[in-house]
């Protein structure tokens, strides 16, 4: 490498995740949904932002499998999605080949999903 310095790009998906984690609303949504499963409307209220902002961040987080979505049915028959953070840890490592991003996610066990769906029906 020369004294001028060289830029080593991380792959596009990793770059999108880094940019997403740099967004204050995405980070706040992850923190809140790490503690408890929440609907987008609840997130918008707690973050004091427009619902469209929350839906945009949740969509982008879901695209990268950083949140899970679950359909909830209220006792009155209405339904809505709730969100739960799946992100546990992000590690950026500098190697001789460039940067490597390692993302650790909370596992989504099919048995847990079936149990949660059954509990929603009660």
Provide a descriptive summary of the structure in words:
The chain is of the alpha+beta class and 122 residues long. The protein contains five helices and five strands; from the N terminus they run ααβααββββα. It has helices at 12-21, 24-35, 40-47, 51-63, 110-121, and strands at 38-39, 67-73, 79-85, 87-95, 98-105. Strands 1-3-2 form a three-stranded antiparallel β-sheet, sandwiched between helices. The chain is globular, with a radius of gyration of 18 Å. The N and C termini lie far apart (63 Å). The model is unreliable at 1-8 (pLDDT under 50).
N-C termini distance? 63 Å
Order of the strands making up the biggest sheet: 1-3-2
Major sheet details: 3 strands, antiparallel
Rg: 18 Å
Oligomer: single chain
Q: List segments where confidence is low: pLDDT < 50 over at least 5 consecutive residues.
A: 1-8
Task: Specify the number of helices.
Answer: 5
Structure summary, number of beta strands: 5
The arrangement of helices and strands along the chain is HHEHHEEEEH
Given helix and strand content, the structural type is alpha+beta
The percentage of residues in β strands lies in 25-35%
Residue share in helix = 40-55%
What integer is the average pLDDT?
84
Overall body shape = globular
């Amino acid at each position: 490498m020369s004294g001028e310095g060289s830029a080593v790009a991380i792959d596009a998906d990793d770059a999108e995740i880094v940019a997403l984690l740099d967004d204050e609303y995405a980070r706040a949504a992850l923190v809140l949904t790490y503690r408890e499963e929440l609907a987008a409307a609840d997130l918008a209220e707690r973050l004091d932002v427009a619902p469209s902002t929350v839906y945009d961040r949740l969509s982008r987080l879901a695209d990268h499998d950083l949140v899970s979505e679950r359909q909830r049915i209220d006792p009155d028959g209405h339904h809505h999605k709730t969100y739960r953070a799946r992100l546990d840890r992000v590690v950026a490592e500098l190697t001789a080949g460039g940067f490597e991003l390692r993302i650790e996610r909370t596992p989504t066990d099919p048995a847990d999903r079936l149990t949660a769906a059954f509990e929603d029906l009660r």
